[in-house]
Amino acid sequence: MIQVENLSKEFILTRKLQKEYATKDKVAIAVDNISFECKPGRIFSLLGPNGAGKTTTMRMISTLFAPTKGSIKIAGIDVVENPNEARKKIGFLTGSTGLYQRLTPNELIKYFADLYHVPTDKFEERKAYLYDLLNMNDFQHKRIGKLSTGMKQKVSICRTMIHDPEVIVFDEPTSGLDVITSENIIKLIRDCKNQGKTVIFSSHIMSEVDLLSDDLAIIHKGKIIFNDTFQNFKQQMTTDNLTSEFIYLIGKQS
Amino acid sequence: MIFTIFKKELKDTLRDRRTIIMMVIIPIFIFPVIMTVFTKISDSFNSDTIAKTLNIGIVNEDKSNDFLKSLNNLPKELGKRELIIFKDSNELKKQINLDSIQFGVFVPQSYAQIKDSLLSADLKIYHNATELGMQERAEVFVNAINENIKIIRYAQLNIKPEQIQPLKISYENVASEKETIGKLIGGFLPYLFIAFGFMGCMYPAIDLFTGEKERGTLETLLTTPVSRWQILIGKMGVVVMSGLLAASLTMLGIFLTIEVFDIIKEPKILEVIHQILTVKFIFMFYLILIPLIIFFAGVMIPIAVYAKTFKEAQSIIAPMNAIIVLPAMVGFFPGVELNLTTSCIPIVNVVLATKELIAGTLDVGLLALSSGIMISLATISIFFSYKQFGKETNLVS
Questions:
Q1: Which pLDDT does position B396 carry in this prediction?
Q2: Rounded to a whole number, what is the distance in Å from the CA of B28 to chain A's nearest CA?
Q3: Are B200 and B331 found together in one domain?
Q4: Assuming Cys at both sites, which of A211, B34, B199, B362 could form a disulfide with B357, CB separation 3.0 to 4.6 Å?
Q5: Which residue segment(s) compose the domain that B99 sits in?
């Protein structure tokens, strides 16, 4: 379960950043008082154009950023008050996630299992399960730098799931990946849902949203402009496809 | 958790070819290579000097003048020589410039009478100062002739040398050979340790902080249930270890130069070096070195955390090498010693303390003060690194 209440995030703009963004504002509001809830066994999609505040929201949920205002609870744990306990419950995967190129998949997975305090017997069990599931046994001893993009993506998935997290945060997980590699991610997201995990997933790829979403929130300029079940969204559509409806809603707010 | 991070970062670092070159290969081989090149050049220069026949020009109309005879009669050990007569000094100067003559002597006509007249003759020696050592070689020959004439004159005047030489001066060095040689090499060694300690820290610092940010792995690491200070200390441990390893391997290089490659032949220097390289020396050396390397890591990490790309970090940290190494050159200056003032100047105190340690004249109180200053700076730099590492804007690109 993820509970987000009245969440805001402001960034102080240094002179350098003011120049970069061509603004005189001293503060940039990336996320503006948003609230939503992601339930176990359901996929929650956070949809929005570039710069809408999706990544900032995901980074606050995964404890990378501290909220300026509001609260986030992961499986009942407040991320600001008890970030390390909250982190134990979270699996975090983004499209831009890198891997340690000079390590082997075995070394990397063991490293993250140790960081997540996974006991040795449970680690061996999880590793065997994930290696079989993702077909990773053949390249477990090769340096990651020498693996193909698809193999690397499997290592990333294994790394995200090694501690069997209750909550999975996917921030644009298929960004920059080809169709075949993206398929591994889509399958993982579905598996997580089937295992009763809470899944939050941000994207701007409509086909993926259509394929996976149970619940949907649309974020624009840091504010939530739609938050309901995906089924209700489809019923309320005024255009004939998702992309047109998304553009229509964004245009209405601008 | 700190050890888990340290272990992983160390493994990752040791698999980076660039770091291995800077941290292991260059520090081990720099000293043996420098010493080999230096001794080879020096040996070849010395043997060339002895073996080379000197062409000495003599300006005097008399082809069988006394000076020429005296020069010919000097012992062979002073070097091979060929004497060429010139009619005037202009042609001699021209030939010296062309290096066909190494030096020349203008012998006045009055030289023929100096044996009987008991007068002085004015000799003029021509040499080219760009040809190093030629003036000194000329002095050797002329002084030998001068001494021979003096002996003849003492006999002519029936006097003993002591009668006109009231003072017989001898010098005795009260410093031990260890101290003398230690102060000489002590100026050079800290320079090497500091330069390589700095370079040993540089690549891991950039790779483990900026590199991790640039490759997109830091974001994932920060979502694990490990505190940021634990991540910082784990990574910093590897940066410090790399710097220490580079400095220690420089020392190993010196050891190899002496004990394995047998490059230093001078027994006196070898004996002194054996006296210096003791367990106590190594312990004290690390007492000076560790705070310095932590200080280096503490200075580099905030920059590496702040920089967005490897290139940006490198462009800021690399020029710092010059700022750090400049005070290290103080070790080369004679007369600059560790005292209350110099103990308080970072880097300079490390150089001077190492110099005193090698010479065996290190004052424990001043060592404590120097180490205290470096530890304080290292603590401040760790705190500053922690502050930078805690900033959200520095952690994700």
A1: 66
A2: 24
A3: yes
A4: B362
A5: 56-164
Q: What CATH number is given to the structural domain containing B143? A: 3.40.190
With 80 as the cut, is the pLDDT of residue A170 above it?
yes
Q: Are residues B249 and B359 in the same domain?
A: yes
Provide the chain A residues 54-83 that lie in CB contact (below 8 A) with chain B.
Answer: 59, 62-66
Q: What is the mean pLDDT of each run of 10 residues along chain B (397 residues)?
A: 91 86 83 81 74 85 79 83 87 89 88 78 89 85 90 88 85 79 74 85 90 87 90 93 90 79 72 76 84 89 88 89 80 79 87 83 86 88 84 71
Closest residue on chain A to B211 (Cα): A100
Q: Complex ipTM, two decimals?
A: 0.87
The partner residue sitting opposite A90, judged by closest CB among B15, B223, B226, is B223
Are B272 and B308 contained in the same domain?
Answer: yes
Residue among A108, A27, A208 nearest B217 (CA): A108
Q: Give dist(CA B361, CA B276) in Å, integer.
A: 12
Min mean pLDDT across A81-85, A183-187, B246-250, B257-261 is at B257-261
| B219 → closest Cβ in A66, A94, A116 | A94
Mutating which of B224, B230, B393 best tests the A interface, going by the most A Cβ atoms within 10 A? Answer: B224
B361 and B298 within one domain: yes
Domain count, chain B: 2
Residue B171 included in any domain: no
Strand partners, B56: B83, B103
> Which CATH homologous superfamily contains domain A2-253?
P-loop containing nucleotide triphosphate hydrolases (3.40.50.300)
Question: Are residues B183 and B237 in contact, defined by beta-carbon separation less than 8 angstroms?
Answer: no
Q: Is there a domain that residue B37 lies in?
A: no
Contacts of B221 in chain A (CB under 8 A): 115
Rounded CA separation B295/B314 (Å) = 18
Tell me: do B66 and B181 sit in the same domain. no
Looking at residue A180, its pLDDT comes to 75
Q: Are A64 and B226 an interchain contact pair (Cβ–Cβ within 8 Å)? A: no
Query: How, if at all, do strands A215-220 and A69-74 pair?
Result: unpaired
CB atoms B225 and A87 under 8 Å: yes
Given a contact cutoff of 8 angstroms between Cβ atoms, the answer to whether B349 and B370 are in contact is yes
Distance (Å, rounded) from C-alpha A73 to C-alpha A80? 9
Q: Contact A214/A43 with Cβ under 8 angstroms? A: yes
Q: Please tell me whether residues B109 and B252 are part of one structural domain.
A: no
Residues of A in contact with B217 (CB under 8 A): 97-100
Whether residue B66 sits in one domain with residue B24: no
Same domain for B250 and B336, yes or no, is: yes
The answer to whether residues B68 and B58 touch, using CB atoms and an 8 Å cutoff, is yes
pLDDT at A109: 95
